[in-house]
Amino acid sequence: MNPTHLLDTHCHVSAYTNPVAVIRAAEANTSIIAVTESPEEYRRLRTRLGPRDHVQVALGLHPLKAHTFTPSDLARFFRLVPETTWIGEVGLDFSRHGAATKKHQLRVFDAVLAEAQPGQHPLTVHSRGAEADSISFLAQAKLPAVLHWYTGPTAPIDSALDAGLYFSYNIAMVRSKKFTTLLRAIPRDRTLLETDGPYARGARGPAQPNHIAEVVAALAGGWGVSVSEATAAILENQRNFIANASRSPRRD
Question: What class has domain 6-246?
C-alpha cells in the first residue's frame, strides 16, 4: 500500500450498495482495509474486487455471528489465514446485543488468536462491552492490533497501551460526546483512522473512505495542531504500526 496514503483500517466495503465505486473514489489518497465478517464474505469480496494496490481484504469472524459458525467455518478460516495480510473484523461483544453468545465468542476469539501469526497478521478488533477482556486476550497473545470504534471505559486503555495496541477513530467518534475524553486518554502516537463505513455516519451520511480526511481535521482540532501536522502524525503512526506488526515476536 502507498505509504503516503491515509489508511482506513476498518471499512465494510461489502455493505455499500456499490463497493467498487466506493473504493475507486478513494484510490487517489486513501488505502483501505476491507474487513469481512466470515470466511465466505472474505472469499466473495476478494473475487469481486480482484487485486488492487490500495485495498487489502481482511479475513474476519465477527463476534456477533460467533454462535452461527460451524466447525467447517472455523476450518475454512484456518485454511485462509496464510493468504491474508490482515485479520478482521474479530473480537468480543458482551453488550446486550451479544451477551447471550459470550461462550461462543470466547471460543471463536481464542481460536482466532491461536491461529494468527505474529509478524504477518495485524488485527482490527471489536470490543464493545468487552473492552478489558479483549485487551487481556490480545496482550497475552502478543499480537499487533487496532481497537476499532472504542467507546468503552478509559481504565483499560493503559493496559492496551502497555500491550502495544492502537486505537482507530471514525467520524461518528469524533462527533460524539466522548471524543474529548478519548483524546485525553489515548496518546497521539497510538491513533489510527477508520470509517466503519457504511455503519458509521457523518454529516454527509454513511462514512466513506474518501471522506476520511474529515476525521483527521477533527483530530487536529482536538490536538490543537494544524491539519498538515495531524496528517503527518497519522502517517507516521501507520508506518510504525505496520513496521512493528511485521517484526512482532513469535509466541512460544
Answer: alpha beta
